[in-house]
Known about the structure:
The complex is a heterodimer.
Chain A: E1 3-5, E2 10-14, E3 19-21, E4 24-26, E5 33-39, E6 46-52, E7 60-61, E8 64-69, E9 74-79, E10 88-95, E11 108-110, E12 114-119
Parallel strand pairs in A: 2-12
Antiparallel strand pairs in A: 1-4, 3-9, 5-6, 5-10, 7-8, 8-9, 10-11, 10-12
Chain B: E1 5-7, E2 10-13, E3 19-24, E4 31-38, E5 42-50, E6 53-56, E7 65-71, E8 74-79, E9 88-95, E10 106-107, E11 111-115
Parallel strand pairs in B: 2-11
Antiparallel strand pairs in B: 1-3, 3-8, 4-5, 4-9, 5-6, 7-8, 9-10, 9-11
Amino acid sequence: xxxxxxxxxxxxxxxxxxxxxxxxxxxxxxxxxxxxxxxxxxxxxxxxxxxxxxxxxxxxxxxxxxxxxxxxxxxxxxxxxxxxxxxxxxxxxxxxxxxxxxxxxxxxxxxxxxxxxxxx
Amino acid sequence: xxxxxxxxxxxxxxxxxxxxxxxxxxxxxxxxxxxxxxxxxxxxxxxxxxxxxxxxxxxxxxxxxxxxxxxxxxxxxxxxxxxxxxxxxxxxxxxxxxxxxxxxxxxxxxxxxxxx
Lengths: 120, 116
């Protein structure tokens, strides 16, 4: 079974600075998908960024980018120019491709989360 | 924007009572998931459906929990009887699964359950 580990329960960053959140995972699959979700105090789970394992290029979405190291099974999230609205719980998640198992392994496996505080 | 709708947003009940949570997935999505979030366990998968058929409910306590999709526009999660340890936020998520596998799940806002 796949596992996802977020080793930083809490992180803080100064507004306008850069912060990196860590995530490692364990899998025997060669193809899979990785995600970062954001959960603000409103509780809503919001997709931040995703990465397909077969792509070597790191995904970017505006101020958010990832450092995907497949051999090391590492998937960190970098937030540049941090804003007060970035304060939230961030979850790393893993998913098998549905084509591998007819859809039965389509579920997301989440890490425990990292609580990010942004200081003004 | 299309959204996943969950009701109720908040529910306070007494131990032993039946609780039903409802989810309306995004129109056209063929996969529905139920997750439970607690401080101790984080996000746990309870059950999921594809084309309304249950694919995996191994994460769900079978003696008191049940999940169904009576039609494509409604998924339900029922707890009977409820216990204090069931207090959590329950999320529904839907997605469109295709052979490409690159699909994204959209989450509802969650139902916060408190069992006294």
